[in-house]
Amino acid sequence: MLVPHKVCFRMSTLLVVFSLPMFAGFSQESVGSHTSSSGDAHNVSPCLLFEITLHGFLLWASLGLLMPLGVLVIRMSNRGERGIRLKIYFRAHAILQMLSVLLATAGAIMSIKNFSNSFNNHHQRIGLVLYGIIWLQALVGFLRPVRGSKGRSPWFFGHWTLGTAVSLLGVINIYSGLLAYSKKTSRSIRLWVILFTVEVSFISFFYLLQDKWEHIQKQGVILGNEPSRPI
Fold first, then answer.
1. pTM greater than 0.90 (yes/no)
2. GO terms for molecular function, please (predicted)?
């Protein structure tokens, strides 16, 4: 029987995968100084173009790559790993998440310093919420109770909830950021949307496969005196 948090995360993961085409058409509104009127879409200075591109790259590396990899790594430690391998998985998870927080913080500083933030659109509002949740998640991670203590279960649920929120909102905001970039520069984002969609689909598939891999391997093995059945 699946525990509730596993069921919820699987549903969330499937929601991301099957909602990708919808996100491709998400939010055509302007995004602060990233998107002004369509008439000046071509009047982007090389310096501003570099800053927008670097901001997008930092947030993709943080929320679109390192954060999901950190989730996959810690999931691998849940398959009965013990001793040195468990420590390796945990440290890899911590390093990936800390790097993700640092890159997201650098992207936030760039946004505050170089862009006009009126927070009148989805991209900036979601981004603001994400920055807060990311740092809250980092703080919660450092304050984890000892395994087996009474506070461990509620802590784990809170940590998982925040992580799920960051993963879902991060994917949505990367798509909306690509659309903002396209509107500001009039450049095609088709290739980047396709590549990111493939990446998210692969990570989601690998996440879902982790739970089933052991079961798949056991399909060709008869356990004990269990008779072979055609099911």
1. no
2. heme binding; metal ion binding; transmembrane monodehydroascorbate reductase activity
